[in-house]
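Appendix B, Record 12. Input sequence as logged:
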Amino acid sequence: MHPPLTLHRHPMCAEIIEEFQKCHLDHPIGKFFGECTELKIKLDRCFRQEKSIKRKANFEQSKKLKERLQGMRKEAAEKSSEEKFMGA
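Logged structural output:
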């Protein structure tokens, strides 16, 4: 099973998606007997590669966000300790 074959959501795999959809149109019965299997395998590989790239980008983005949040927490902790010190 594959995700919905929308070109705008899978720009890396657009060419293979178009070929796969054309194969299904050209072989309405043959698609059930493996006529388009080779393209399906290419499509699955492309989706895996695309997902890997997205996962890596998301991980990098989350690392940056974590670092930013830790910095903000550290600043807030320093401010509150300074206020306690000044207030006492």
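The chain has two helices and no strands.
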